Amino acid sequence: MKTTVGAHAVQRRWRLDVWDLLIRLVLIAASLACTLPFVHVAAKSLSDDAYVIANKVYLWPAGFNLEAYEKIFADASIMRSLYVSVIVTVLFTVLGMIATICAAYPLSRKQLEGRSALTFIFVFTLYFGGGIIPDYMLVNSLGMLDTVWSLVLPGLFSAFYMLILRSSISGSIPVSLEESARIDGAGHFRILFSVVLPLCKPILATLSLFLAVNRWNAYQDALFYIKQNTDLRPLQLKLYYLVIQASETFQLEATNVSLSNPEVLKASVVVFATLPIICVYPFIQKYFVQGTLLGAVKE
Fold first, then answer.
1. pLDDT tens-place string over residues 121-158
2. How far is C-alpha 70 from the geometric centre of its chain's CA atoms?
């Protein structure tokens, strides 16, 4: 009998080990699929033109060369685009979180009359949208074309993020805490800033990261709204114009140096545009992991 039980235990453990191995292999494959393209681009950006033209660069630089990065830092238009992207991303993230908090906190309170109807109105916008042409007409009628606000205000508020924050506040903030604060004479704003927000740091950091990444990587709205004032082109739009450059010779706007192969410059700008958001992630990684696990089943 003991032998049979032991055999079943070994068989079950073997099955678990097989599934564990398969899960690890899938995760490793997914990680490599996300990481290797960026490593390849970084290797091209640090390689000599001749090796890139000959397609001899894979995951390690060939003929180490920093000439492309020197040209990036020497080009005033790219540095100006970086400055615009930083300003727009910071404004978008800060104002977006303020709008999200101001909508999520009242809707999470049961004493708010008509909160179900208001929530339905927000959810309705997730299923139906006006489209690109009405958005452009609205931005034009408001006089925001060729301004920073055309990159900040149209996509500032996300009903999806608001619902996530609303559910987090409702599920993680006990009603007793609010009642205790009210007994001590605290109002809504004092409860929000002293009780709710400190307990919601993980989800706030997560949503802030999502907003920042979405704004940093966006270029389509700038392509539509920024036409005449080229000084307001963000870095991603600048990268877009570099990528679609069809000629074999590419000349920077602020320099008189031409490259025989624009692929090295494109790869360098991709790395240059990606590094800032990568550098921000380690500082909020702890809160990001906690925020993504909110709502998980705990034993």
1. 888 888 887 778 888 888 889 888 888 898 888 888 88
2. 27
CA distance 71 to 268: 10
Query: Please, what sign has the CA dihedral across residues 277, 282, 286, 290?
Result: positive
Residues 136 and 226: their CA atoms lie apart, in Å, by 11
Closest CA to 250 of 239, 261, 240: 261
pLDDT (0 to 100) of residue 99: 92
Q: C-alpha 31: how far from its chain's center?
A: 18
Q: How many CA atoms does the CB half-sphere of 233 hold within 13 Å? A: 18
Instruction: Report d(CA 167, CA 118) in Å as an integer.
Output: 15
DSSP code, position 258:
E
Per-residue exposure over 256-273, b if at least 16 CB sit within 10 Å of its own CB, e if not:
eeebebbbbbbbbbbbbb
Question: Length of the chain, please?
Answer: 299
Distance CA 273, CA 69 (A): 12
DSSP per-residue string spanning 196-228: IHHHTHHHHHHHHHHHHHHHHH--HHHHHH-SS
d(CA 154, CA 92): 10
Position with higher pLDDT, 92 vs 200 = 92
Q: What is the mean pLDDT of residues 96-114?
A: 87
